[in-house]
Q: What sequence folds into this?
């Protein structure tokens, strides 16, 4: 018999406190029945003051394996994901080799299954080698054991409108979705940061908002024309929010994501020339941050996705122009959403469950994740302490890379436990390959 957990006095979605029993991989009982049915062997978890959420689902994670195991592996990245409260991640396709065949996506899916920290759903590339020329084997990836439903050339934009049209048409056949990294390449050649007052003052080449907005506008019209669904990656500007709002008002089947860093940070961070703040799309202005927060609160933006983009030191500890784009995010996402949206009164915990679990699961067609907190449902769960405060120390995180933009910042909230089909992957805030914290204290041994 598998381990049973009795979660005492937890608050589902921040509501009234109840007991919840996890047994045989499912939520076995809620309320008075839970303690009655628990039996003597159940492990009790004191949940007073804790919020119970469905396990978080990330639609946009870079796990880097195969090819850049110096930055992250499926094992280290999925362990980081569990520590961040996730029970499923979508592994982006910009690996080496590219995830553009059934063979490579199955390899990543298998690595995820064997690691056992979260469910890994590989994203398939739209074009062969992300080169934007020839459509990849979308159908073969969809029909593989990895059951790919999300397709993206992320890191690059599918800028050829004919290729984008074909991808949108083709993915309809297997209920897939194209997830577009919206960046007009000619308008962003050489770009280093957001084009605006700060870029002009500090002398870095700018990436104008219109380079994102022009592609989103084109793509929603293409999606309408062919009757396909479209997902917009890491939307970052006020204008992009306006376009999505307009597209939804016309009934276009589009969804959009915002990252935690675009909900919190602005281009002012670039003034110190610290490449930890170099990211694609770039950090924008305070007005853009306000617009994406408002768009997330009113449902125009559907989800938060981390765009966890680990990079090794040598790709970040260099001058700004030479550094790689990207920041880690799996282990701070929930805290940033709490600070930006919950603690500001703009969203409830039920909204958090929607934007970080049920809707990303629905977009990715992940059937057994993001489910309601009800008896009989799979026990994919996250237990959060909203009253906790912690200072971000990247070297103490599960991810193998240290490029967190929140280094040294105090953030609210902490993941106390994560359950994957009733099995604790994290308990008392510790990964369950390291229950007493000794491996973590000794360095990175736990991840290799
Ligand atoms: N976000 C980033 O700045 N970088 C991502 C690629 C991407 O998401 O576009 C990466 O793979 O490093
Ligand atoms: Zn991208
Ligand atoms: Zn990305």
A:
């Amino acid at each position: 018999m598998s381990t049973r957990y009795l979660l005492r006095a937890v608050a589902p979605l921040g509501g009234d406190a109840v007991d919840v029993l996890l047994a045989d991989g499912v939520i076995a009982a809620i309320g008075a029945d839970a303690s009655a049915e628990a039996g003597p062997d159940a492990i009790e978890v004191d949940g007073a003051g804790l919020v119970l959420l469905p396990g978080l689902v990330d639609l946009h994670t870079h796990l880097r394996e195969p090819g850049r195991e110096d930055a992250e592996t499926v094992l280290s990245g999925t362990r980081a994901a569990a520590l961040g409260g996730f029970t499923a991640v979508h592994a982006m396709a910009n690996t080496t080799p590219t995830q553009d065949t059934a063979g490579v996506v199955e390899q990543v899916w298998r690595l995820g299954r064997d690691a056992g920290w979260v469910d890994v759903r590989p994203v398939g590339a739209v074009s062969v080698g992300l080169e934007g020329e020839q459509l990849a084997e979308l159908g073969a990836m969809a029909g593989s054991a990895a059951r790919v439903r999300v397709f993206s050339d992320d890191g690059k934009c599918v800028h050829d409108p004919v290729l984008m049209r074909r991808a949108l048409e083709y993915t309809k056949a297997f209920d897939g979705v194209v997830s577009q990294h919206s960046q007009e390449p000619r308008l962003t050649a050489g770009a280093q940061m957001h084009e605006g007052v700060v870029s002009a003052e500090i002398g870095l080449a700018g990436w104008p908002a219109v380079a994102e907005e022009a592609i989103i506008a084109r793509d929603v019209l293409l999606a309408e024309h062919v009757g396909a669904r479209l997902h917009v990656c890491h939307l970052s500007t006020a204008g992009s929010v306006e376009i999505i709002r307009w597209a939804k008002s016309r009934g276009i089947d589009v969804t959009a994501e915002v990252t935690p860093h675009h909900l919190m940070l602005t281009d002012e961070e670039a003034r110190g020339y610290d490449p930890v703040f170099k990211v694609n799309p770039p950090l924008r202005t305070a007005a853009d941050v306000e617009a994406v927060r408002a768009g997330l609160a009113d449902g125009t933006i559907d989800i938060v996705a981390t765009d966890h983009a680990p990079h090794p030191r040598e790709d970040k500890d260099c001058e700004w122009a030479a550094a790689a784009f990207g920041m880690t995010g799996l282990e701070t996402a929930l805290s940033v959403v709490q600070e930006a949206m919950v603690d500001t009164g703009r969203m409830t915990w039920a909204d958090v469950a929607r934007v970080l679990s049920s809707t990303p699961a629905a977009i990715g067609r992940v059937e057994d994740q993001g489910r309601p907190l009800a008896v009989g449902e799979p026990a994919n769960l996250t237990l959060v302490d909203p009253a906790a405060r912690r200072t971000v120390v990247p070297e103490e995180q599960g991810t193998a890379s240290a490029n967190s933009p929140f280094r040294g910042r105090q953030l609210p909230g902490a993941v106390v436990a994560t359950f994957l089909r009733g099995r604790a992957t994290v308990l008392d805030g510790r990964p369950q390959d390291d229950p007493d914290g000794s491996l973590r204290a000794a360095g990175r041994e736990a991840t290799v």
